[in-house]
Design goal:
12 strands; 6-stranded mixed beta sheet; homodimer; DNA-binding; 14 helices
Chain lengths: ~350, ~350
Amino acid sequence: MKKKITLKQIARELDVSISTVSKALRNSIEISEDTREKVQAFAKLYNYRPNNIALSLKNRKTKTIGVIIPEIVHHFFSKVIRGIELVANKRGYNVIVGLSNESFDKEVINMQMLANGSIDGFILSISKETLQYQDYHHFIETISQGMPIVMFDRVVNEINCDKVIIDDLKGSKNAVDKLLNNGCKHVAIITTKDYVSVGRLRTQGYLQALEEHKMIADSHLILKVDDELLSEDHLDSLEVEIEELFKKNKKIDGVFAVNELYAIIAMKVARKLGLKIPDDIQFIGFTDGVLSKHATPSLTTVSQHGQEMGEKAADLLINKLENEDEDEDEDEHYETFVIETNLIERESTK
Amino acid sequence: MKKKITLKQIARELDVSISTVSKALRNSIEISEDTREKVQAFAKLYNYRPNNIALSLKNRKTKTIGVIIPEIVHHFFSKVIRGIELVANKRGYNVIVGLSNESFDKEVINMQMLANGSIDGFILSISKETLQYQDYHHFIETISQGMPIVMFDRVVNEINCDKVIIDDLKGSKNAVDKLLNNGCKHVAIITTKDYVSVGRLRTQGYLQALEEHKMIADSHLILKVDDELLSEDHLDSLEVEIEELFKKNKKIDGVFAVNELYAIIAMKVARKLGLKIPDDIQFIGFTDGVLSKHATPSLTTVSQHGQEMGEKAADLLINKLENEDEDEDEDEHYETFVIETNLIERESTK
DNA sequence: TTGTACGCGTTATCAA
DNA sequence: TTGATAACGCGTACAA
């Protein structure tokens, strides 16, 4: 077992000073070609690599990005991470991941763990509980300590930082437009409670589309699911709720769901009730995941471009980090970057 | 913007020495109650937290685990990460994620980036390319530098380290047993090329089950998919291959697939050919993901317990890390932990 | 009870 | 051309 070798050990072996070794390895012209070669050969032999931690301490930069997301077993979030990792690696950064598990406390603790020097900046998506409590002090503190944050998808106006979002309103409006243009007369929406910003916005898009088509929204066709239902155990009761929705409103001929799972479950219920898709009833979901693609019938969805969001967020953060020095003029300028959605048409619509 | 405060700054403000501050904050009895309170109050006011990097450098421990996986947009791997993160956080560790993207080079580079002091140990699953090349020098080097590795799922005998696996052979044997016991006479398998160890083992399990039921394996019923096909673009050609399989072997009444996507696609093809599931043909997949649960019909699968694997791997690694000091007696003892699989019966089997 | 000095591994500055 | 020294932030053995 040969432990990692350090400058000091090389110096001792070669009977030169530490600084000579350091310079030799960085090809400094201060050092004679002789010693340079000698040192480099020795270093190569022992596979010397500078210790990252020491460099971090010295440079006050860790070259590491902290990512806090509510959940990782989720197609969208894992796509975002892939995007972040891609860009981060390309630009010489590592990615350290913390999961809030939709909990306020875990979000705070995770951020504290990382904010004590482990990372240079955050990329995060806010947990549902935090959105509910509307307690954002941990973000504010982090930013005021000079650690930049980039938020994506679940963002909040109260916090002044770079953001990467999609146009939820426009995306869902387009989806509902599509259903209406396809001839649907009674479009239902399956959405979340309003404190989840994306749910609220997507509901707005639905309403706007109806309005533009001179149709009157029917509150009976709006199902706001309690997000407790998202926990796996409660999916059955979601199914029941949807079944009731369909039974009480037999005229429904189009469904827009704010995520793919809701849509898939709704399709299942519809089929159970003997409805033909897309002839009797059409479906569109949000977020393009594996389910949408491989379900039967495959689901038309509003694509959220998770990887692209991740890439953009990472670029924004790293740009901020690398310009920090020059940017001492404190004219804090924050960007909100909107990623375009697009409709991926599959078998669940005509 | 109030930057993070350090011991030195507190010391200067309070006009005491750095070590006094340090001791006071750690409640040392060496320090008078007076100064202790004064220092602690001040520290609290300025929200002092020790710098992780400095601690890492001093303790030669980063309290961080490096995780290298082939892919993150994948139900199984994200479940594993969730398990790792859960245990790691509970035990005071962070998780830094690197993606090999199934590439040998990226695996090596990622490990090098992290091995230079950024982490205390690795948890990883080997990339397909690495398995193909059978080049494991980067693992050997890492281990010989005294950095422990725990491998999961895709492991390799050549490397001596802790491992967490499932009994692929037994799991698939059970699955095929189930099909045979359900009356299937002609069970096909959709598997991967043999260099992917899990594919090879699962194929063996299939063969063993047949043998025990005194049935002769028919090579025409064994479809070894080139993993190129896994890249999203090529799924269509996989569909074609499976369709040919079914058309050439009309007697097939059971299908075992080594992952869930193969199974789902096979079901789709079967339905297209007018076969009734599970009456005409039954299906079992491997790895329990979202697709299995929400497909129609839902898919019977061999559950791989990704989260449990992650938890176990993290525990193994952290145990090794925390016992390192005592363990100087070099009696390197490595464990291979086998997680039990179980069959989750759904609608695709009788 | 408090402070000094050292070391973790590195680089940069300045002196030899 | 080389080397000594300081600094990054912290904890601790030892000295005062």
